[in-house]
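Go through this chain for my students:
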Amino acid sequence: MKGIVVAPQVRACDIGVEVLSRGGNAFDAAVATAFAQEVDDPLMCGLGGMGVAQLYHAASGAHLTIEFHGRGGALCRPDMYARTLRMQTKLGRAIVVNDYRSELGYQSIMTPGTVAGLGRIHARFGSLPWADLLAPAAALARSGMWVMPYALEFWNRLPQAGLADGRTRLSATEECRNLYVRPDGSFHPLGSTIPNPDLGDTLEALAAAGADDFYRGALGARIAEDMEANDALVTGADLQGYRCIEGEPLHIRYRGYDLYTAPPPASGLSVLQILRFLEPFDMAGAGHNSVRHLDLLIRAMTAAQVDRYAHIADPLFAEVPVARLLSADHAAEWRAKLLDADDLPRPEHVPDLGTTHISAADAAGNVVSMTHTLGTASGVITPGMGFIYNNSMKLFDPNPDHPNAVAAGKARTTAMSPTMVFRDGRPLFAVGAPGGSAIISSVSQTLLNLLDFGMSPAEAVVAPRLHAEGGEVLVESRVQGRVLEGLMARGHNIQRSPHALDPSFSRAQVAQISEDGFRGGSDPRTGGGAVALCDG
């Protein structure tokens, strides 16, 4: 079948397009690509992770989200960090305690949802056998993870104050250290491979037994035993009770287009709020990356981030006023407050970097936009299983009264924003990105580049970008100096990045569907990016 797969990992894209060439559909390709990503990018995503997917099934007209967010274990308590909290990081407001237990080790782990989510996608819309979709990833695990530039950058990144560095993270358990750190303490070099036969065995067992085995079968029993033996917050009952959630995507109209994205606790709402704020203005007429364009964008992003911290949470635990936040009246209120304001409000919460994404489509009209993550990885590997668990406990809020407070069974707020664009009932674009809170700025600017400025997918993901949440505004070095001077004259605190393509700005992934075929754009920031086309 003809189609397209767009993702940061080259070999995973190859596997996705091979699935299309064997007659699989976009859902098959996305599932196979995701499992391969978990082999080649094991600190960004994995069997121990979580995520959210937006799916459009052309034949039936079904258009839905499948949410497979991580959930707090049964042993979580709302006040569990109140006495031991040392600080929260400037970026991410990540919980920091002296022994790193909020971000490393067994107590940083939330009940993982990725396997359940991929299993549900396959059960709803897959066409090829489940085992066939996992087999390429299992083979990839045995041949070895390919060490890419973004992996080395993540491992060597200087952490924020209070957070663990890459070597500490990868050494959190003996299993993880033996796999990813060489005996002399160094990391594996760029372009080398790291075989992971244990992960190959786990994937083969999962292929044979089905996704449910990860939660309620032999694999789940091994996980539960390891969690209990190491005082984890997640229990066997949490695994057995885990279910992903099917829902409806959020929707707005923007300049004649229909935009759909993931609902809370994901942050697609924030992306739509930015566009709501900007809709009355002639963005194309202002000129791309002009003072007018970027000034309005900074103010829109700030408004969305303030609302995000105040309101976005797990709707099973807190009321999220989605309709009001997406209303034209609410956008007008923000414009009245911010268009001429000298001092912009600053939210208190900014998630950190991590995650990966897939955009895929096929000739039958099926479309997938899926983001999945480990947070920044706990460093925990159950002996003999080969995959790292998430560390998402650190991104709850330590205040028991906050909407994003810790609770058993609760999903924490995430910046994931898998988005689709339709016109006249037809899908045009699947858009998404990895990269913490930068996902919101990345996806919103990519959408503006596509819809307001008429860029191709490749142009849209590579164009110079900024990231704003109130306070400092980080701008890539390619934005012209006279524009930055104009923004500073408007009162903005501009911080010019030394990078032309800043690796912290999130890697947008776009698949375009048109009558002429498919086009894609994969963001090259941090050295990754692949577009795979299948001609049938």
In short: The chain has 19 helices and 20 strands. Residues 251 and 431 are 14 Å apart (CA to CA). Confidence is low (pLDDT under 50) at residues 86-92. The chain has two domains: 3-146+192-243+356-395, 247-351+416-515.
